[in-house]
Amino acid sequence: MPEWITVSAASRKAGVSDRTIRNWIAKGTLSAKKERGQWLIDDSSLSEIGKQVSDEVGNSERGETISVPLEHYDGLMTRLGQLEAENSQYRLMLEAHDSEAGKLEAELRELREQVKHYQEPWYRRWFKKRKPE
After folding, report:
1. Phi, psi (5° rounding) for residue 28?
2. Each residue's pLDDT tens digit, 87-111
């Protein structure tokens, strides 16, 4: 008799997200049933898919290739391009903000000097200006 576990328990056991478990259920990769609105996964099917995933990772670490469906690969490459473009935009924005932050810091230093100057008594400021060099 199969042992049924919840999506969160399965995700912890497999070391993947809840969303991945749900995707595997939708694809039919995992044996699961829905009971009272909650997915329950057959623990033995989870063990089997965990073995397949670890075999694939082991093969890739040895320099061997992994078979990936073309539409999945294309989707990954598209998303990679989008993320690289976003990263470039954010780097440019960060550089602009860093430049602006530098200007604001210089202005803040100048204002602090002015405040310090006006915190001195008037006679010290007056005599500082009149001192011979």
Report:
1. 85, 10
2. 999 999 998 888 888 899 999 999 9
**Spans of all domains in the chain:** 4-67
Lowest mean pLDDT segment, chosen from 19-33, 79-93, 112-126: 112-126
Do 46 and 14 contact (CB within 8 A), yes or no? yes
pTM: 0.39
Instruction: Give the C-alpha separation, 91 to 97, whole Å.
Output: 10
Token readout for 36 is 């009272």
Domain 4-67 has CATH 1.10.1660: yes
Token pair recorded at residue 65: 């290739």
Residues 6+ apart with CB under 8 A from 45: 30, 31, 32
Full 3-state SS string of the chain: CCCEEEHHHHHHHHCCCHHHHHHHHHHCCCCEEEECCEEEEEHHHHHHHHHHHHHHHHHHHCCCCCCCCHHHHHHHHHHHHHHHHHHHHHHHHHHHHHHHHHHHHHHHHHHHHHHHHHHCCHHHHHHHHHCCC
